[in-house]
Write a structure and sequence with these properties.
By secondary structure, this protein is α+β, with helices and mostly antiparallel strands. The protein has three helices and ten strands. The strands form two sheets. A six-stranded antiparallel sheet has the order 1-2-3-4-5-8. Strands 7-6-9-10 form a four-stranded antiparallel sheet.
């Protein structure tokens, strides 16, 4: 079996990597286009984070560096305005990362002991709320709980995030893979050309 890698194939692969980086999931948080969507059961919220003393840029999931942070949640589904919403951040002491779910983060006592931020349940009739907190470097899990007051049913979104932890982006990784494939293609083509 002979592999033939052309520069056209490399370009198509690179475009696919770039596209996959534009729609990525991070637990209950998903980047769609240029918006960060937080899914809580069947409902959705816009999620935006800021560190105004450090940068003017908004972030979606991982917090770039330790410091004062503002997180804003805006309800996409208007029915959320009639429900109670709470917000909690716990340290990821179990190292669950992307495997964190409401069932794996621990029992009530473990959650209470690892909590670094808690905003009790309340209704947000205007469909928006924000949180300000100073996060030190580390690994965390965010938990948004929405309670339907009429049915007493709870919906959860569990999403891991890091603070001040550098990580490679899919675009960077895709670029490296592209360069490796391009170099491989060039080497094969040079060998083929010199062989004739």
């Amino acid at each position: 079996m002979q592999w033939k890698i052309s520069s056209k194939h490399c370009c198509l692969f690179f475009v696919a990597i770039l596209y996959s980086g534009s729609i990525s999931a991070h637990g209950g948080v998903e980047i769609i286009g240029n918006q960060c969507i937080l899914t809580v059961g069947p409902f959705q919220m816009l999620f935006t984070g800021y560190q105004p003393t450090i940068s003017n840029e908004a972030f979606c999931d991982d917090i770039p560096s330790q410091g004062d942070t503002i997180i804003a949640l805006d309800f996409i589904d208007k029915v959320l305005r009639t429900m109670s919403t709470d917000y909690r951040v716990i340290k990821d002491i179990k190292g669950l990362g992307l495997n964190a779910t409401i069932d794996t983060i621990g029992d009530a006592e473990e959650i209470k002991n690892s909590t670094v931020l808690y905003i009790p349940p309340q209704s947000y009739i205007h469909g928006t709320f924000s949180i300000e907190h100073h996060f030190p470097n580390g690994k965390y899990i965010g938990i948004v709980t929405v309670i339907d007051k009429q049915t007493s049913r709870s919906y959860y979104s569990v999403f891991p995030f890091t603070v001040g932890q550098a990580k490679l982006s899919l675009v960077f990784i895709g670029g490296v893979i592209f360069l490796i494939l391009l170099a491989t293609s060039l080497i094969f083509n040079i060998k083929k050309y010199n062989g004739h």
